[in-house]
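DM from R.C. (forwarded with permission)

"hey, sorry to bug you on a friday — could you get me a structure for this? deadline for the figure draft is monday and I only need the backbone to look sensible"
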Amino acid sequence: MTSVDVDDQNPSRKEHKNPILKKTDSLRASIEYKDYIMNKKFERIYVNLAGYLIEKKGDDLEITYIESINGYSTI
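My reply, with the result:
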């Protein structure tokens, strides 16, 4: 599971690094949100996502399957 590096025109000093994936440069996006908001040219869309959340808690390993299909989510 990974996250997208989005340039949302709101710079932050905090650098986000994914400890699992070494290279995620292919997931870079830029959003000019002010133009869309001011011109009201936006619509609601749903992105189909699915993946596993793997967490180590002490000696235990917890694996959770998460999905969001057609706007409905299940955990």
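R.C.: lifesaver. Residues 5-74 form one domain.
me: no worries. Residues 37 and 59 are 48 Å apart (CA to CA).
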